[in-house]
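Render this sequence as a predicted structure.
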Amino acid sequence: MNSLLVGKMTKRRPWWLESFKGWSYVAYEMLFQKMCTWHLKNPLPLPCLKNINSIVTGCTSGIGLEIAKQLAFSGAHVVMAVRNISSAYELVQNWHDELQEEWYGTSTLSIEVLELNLLSLNSVIHFAKKWNSNSKPLNILVNNAGIFSLGEAQKFSKDGFETHMQVNHFAPALLSILLLPSMISNGSSLRRIINVNSSLHKMGFVNIDDMNFVLNKPRFTSTKAYSNSKLAQVMFSGILQRHLTFQSGVSVVCVSPGSVRTNVTRGLPEIIKLAHNCIPYFPFSPRQGARSALFAATDTKIPQYCKQLKIKEPPFGVYISLKCNLVRPSRKARNLFVANAVWKRTLDMIGLPLDVVERILKGEKVMSCLYKNVSACVHIQNESSSVLIRNESASVHIRNESASVHMLNESVLYQLRMNL
């Protein structure tokens, strides 16, 4: 099994130790990040981005809002890929009003609002189809949208995936690959996929056989789910860059925004909100947190970074820190064996073939994503157990004699059979 192989390659430390190290790093980062970035301008100066098409997910608040705004004010055509369309249109109107009052280097804003819900893979597929059908070249994709339901119980999407893993990893991975044809076809030298990551990926550990925490080993917590999803994103991004040829011109970059004062505390217990509000000086503002993503999206050194790291042994992906410089991701993120396993399992779970990138580079169409929900009752008989799979509100329940667990997608059916 893959999990056994992973165990041979990486000795897993106790979660309490990983958690302590991870949160210690975050605390250190938050306390000293402003001192370390005193030399960076706020906002980060951007070049003229006229005739540049960009897509930013989750951009009605926080870092995403600042990324979309600054790209638009620098002349780029910005597509706001959001769930709440009405909020996006309000922002666009406010930005137009702001533009009339002060000169920002452009006289008009080119902004488009499209609906995208990362909790639905069908929504991701529909969005990608709509964009590709317009035959517009894509220069910059910023996968910013993410969730961290700190302290909340485990939840699953309508597709059956654990919500942190779907929103933070599976959906952005699917979106990035499905939009590759529009990115490769453009004649510009600016072709970037930017994944807004987190320093918490340092405490993550991806269990290839249980990326959705359905086996409860280790026990689910929102912090584990978030950090694991961010680690999976870094690993997947590095392997995606390896599969993209130099001729494609596409750079895949993960960035750390730092500890940012956003609405991440929304819906959390009041005591946590109070603690968060008691330290107003140390966290970045959203504008400061957006600098690393904007740097990665526009700086001319990024393609060279990707080329250098791709030929290193072992190769790993480009990671830009909150100081807007190149750093190495965590040791676990650079484990090529596990990263390849994450790549294969991710493509399997989102319904794409393993050679999907190579097929896209050859000009083949791959929009017929094989992902689909279980739509009917399926009975599987095994010599040692009887398993019933049924769809209830798009969640798949699997029961056997020894345990009752929530499985997430018919793509794990094969793995289930092997385990039984």
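Summary. The first helix runs from residue 2 to 9. The first strand starts at residue 53 and ends at 57.
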